[in-house]
Amino acid sequence: MAALDDLDLETLDFGSVEPEEFARIVKGLSAARLAALMDGPQRRRVLDEVFGRMHTRFRPSAAGDRDALIRWKITGAEGADDVYETHIAKGACTVTSERTERTPQLSLAMAAPEFLKLVSGNASGPTLFFTRKLKLKGDIKLAGFLTHYFDIPKV
Q1: What percent of the chain shows pLDDT beyond 90?
Q2: pTM of the model
Q3: What would the pLDDT profile of 38-91 be if each residue is shown by its tens digit?
Q4: Across-strand partners of 109?
Q5: What is d(CA 155, CA 148) in angstroms, rounded to the nearest whole number?
Q6: Domain boundaries, the chain
Q7: Residue 70 — φ and ψ, nearest 5°?
Q8: Cα→Cα distances 152→21, 58, 128, Å
Q9: Start-to-end CA span in the chain (Å)
Q10: CB within 8 Å of 23: residues ≥ 6 apart
Q11: Could you name the CATH architecture of 17-149?
Q12: How far apart are CA 64 and CA 33, in angstroms?
């Protein structure tokens, strides 16, 4: 992998990047560069890739018989928000790339850079919550266990 300063994020095929490499990329980017990436044309492709892989990183044994709908609101510049929903049920995790009429047990809202840090193992949910970079509504206990339900890279 090229040095992060030389990495062309605008043309990088995030679909070909393994989760551990993605975690290293996120860790190595400055806050300004990460924000610029997520305010640019790659934003939706990066989010779609992350959410599209969630089912492959899901740990059914950790979730047990949990049945929960989680709504993710990824905020952006000038109100350009993206909403995804993950449904954990019957040992599986399915993703919807839009808001549905279903009522979530948990809603999470955060800026795109913080979301990428969270899902790549570069930030903790409690830290983001206590620094007001993550807003929660609903089942706080579910929020506390959410990262245990997925195989998140260790960086």
Answers
A1: 75
A2: 0.89
A3: 998 889 999 999 999 999 999 999 999 999 999 999 998 777 899 999 999 999
A4: 73, 135
A5: 16
A6: 17-149
A7: -115, 125
A8: 12, 9, 16
A9: 16
A10: 120, 121, 122, 153, 154, 155
A11: 2-Layer Sandwich (3.30)
A12: 38
